[in-house]
Amino acid sequence: MWEGQVPLSTVGWFRTLFCGLVLCRLLYSFGDQARYVASPIFDGYMAVPVIRAGVPALPYWAFISSGVGLAVCLGLAAVGIRGQLCLWLCLPLYFLYFGHLLGLSYIARKTNLIPLILLTLALTPNVGALSIRALLRGGSDRPAPAWTFEVPKLLVAMVYFGAGILKLGNQWWDGQSLQYFLIGHHLRSDLPFCWALAQQIELCCALSILTILFELGFVLALLFPRLALPCCLAALTFHAGTAWALNIWYLKYFAPAMLAFLPDVWPSRFALSADPHGRGPG
Asked: Please, which contacts does 83-90 make with residues 24 or more away whose CB atoms are closer than 8 Å?
């Protein structure tokens, strides 16, 4: 599986859709995030990879510049203009920008896969060779390494599987942990539905078990590609439920990573294999 090949056009579409979605999310929240860094709430530190302690934040103008630079590089990578170079530039700009924002609950842990997938794309040979115009005209059947998709899929599965293992360790299946979680959310955010649900311990227990089964079972999408569609639908249902009931919007920055499953979910549009000699079909 990892040593296989996929058409370069399939990788190009993944690059375009992934970078495009991250860009849209960045632009949508840029104003609010800029105001957060400028407000007294901001603690004046930024996170740096490997270094556990925070370091002093960049000047405000440098923070804004990093966000603008990240948006420009994501946009250029999405349309295939100097795509490979822009993907590499996105990496330091990501840390310079999002390192200031980990105090926001909808950012913390939810953007972790973005730099890893950007790195995977940047390492893919010729990933920036196809422009959006070339993709719309049919792209190219030249081969590209299958790990461009396998790595992001593995990362997504690891997120869910790790969450499931953590819940097992916390004895989540008894429903009491979910009950405590729901009550806490109600007290913080005034969510009457959470309070009402917390009174039903049997229902909390059932939902807890279903959550564990979903998170541990998502790895099946890796092992059996035909299960990718039901696993992804289960993920969308799960996150839509938590967004509606708990106001937890995990898919804001996590959804682009799910695009790695597109070749499995929609094989008729996104081919799964390529001619190793680049001759194309026929």
From this structure: 83/15, 83/127, 83/128, 83/129, 84/122, 84/126, 84/127, 84/128, 85/128, 86/128, 87/15, 87/19, 87/118, 87/121, 87/122, 87/127, 87/128, 88/122, 90/19, 90/115, 90/118, 90/122
Q: Helices 201-217 & 176-189, crossing angle to 10 degrees?
A: 100
Strand partners, 5: 145
Q: Report how far residue 256's alpha carbon sits from residue 114's, in angstroms, rounded to the nearest whole number.
A: 8
Which residues, listed in sequence order, are joined to residue 144 by a DSSP beta bridge?
6
* Alpha helix ranges (H) inside the chain: 8-38, 60-79, 83-98, 113-123, 132-136, 147-169, 176-189, 192-198, 201-217, 220-223, 228-246, 251-258, 262-265
- Dihedral angle, C-alpha 69, 71, 72, 74, nearest 10 °: 120
- Measure the CA dihedral 13/18/21/23, to 10°: -110
Kindly list the domain boundaries of the chain, sorted by start residue: 1-138, 146-269
Q: Indicate the pairing of strand 45-46 with strand 5-7.
A: unpaired
- At which residue do the structure tokens 């399939």 appear? 10
Q: What percent of the chain stands above pLDDT 90?
A: 43
pTM for this predicted structure: 0.86
pLDDT, tens digit, 9 for 90 and up, residues 158-216: 999 999 998 887 788 888 888 888 888 777 777 788 888 888 888 889 988 999 999 99
